[in-house]
Amino acid sequence: MSEKLGVMTVLFTILVVLAMEAHHVECIVLTPMDPCNPLRCFILCFEVMAENYNGFCCNPEGTICVCK
After folding, report:
1. d(Cα 54, Cα 58) in Å, to the nearest integer?
2. Which interval of the chain is the signal sequence (predicted)?
C-alpha cells in the first residue's frame, strides 16, 4: 500500500510542477526578456484583484503588469 501511495505522490508532484510550468511559459511568451519585476507585479495584482486574483503576466514590452 505504501508503494502505491509513493507513486501517487510522485505523479501528483509532477502534475503540479507541469501546471506551474505551463502557467510560467504563458507569461514568458509575453516577455521574452522577462524585464518585469515578478514580486512587484504579484503584490500589485494581488492588491488590485483581491479574491479574484488568478496570476499575472507582463505586457509584450515588459513594462506593465497584466493581472488575470
Report:
1. 14
2. 1-27
Please tell me the pTM assigned to this model. Answer: 0.40
Instruction: Express each pLDDT in 26-47 by its tens digit.
Output: 454 444 445 677 777 787 778 8
Q: Which tens digits make up the pLDDT trace of 8-23?
A: 665 555 544 444 444 4
Radius of gyration of the chain (CA): 16
Q: Which three cell numbers stand for residue 15?
A: 502534475
Residues contacting 56, CB < 8 A, separation 6+ = 27, 41, 42, 44, 45, 65, 66, 67, 68
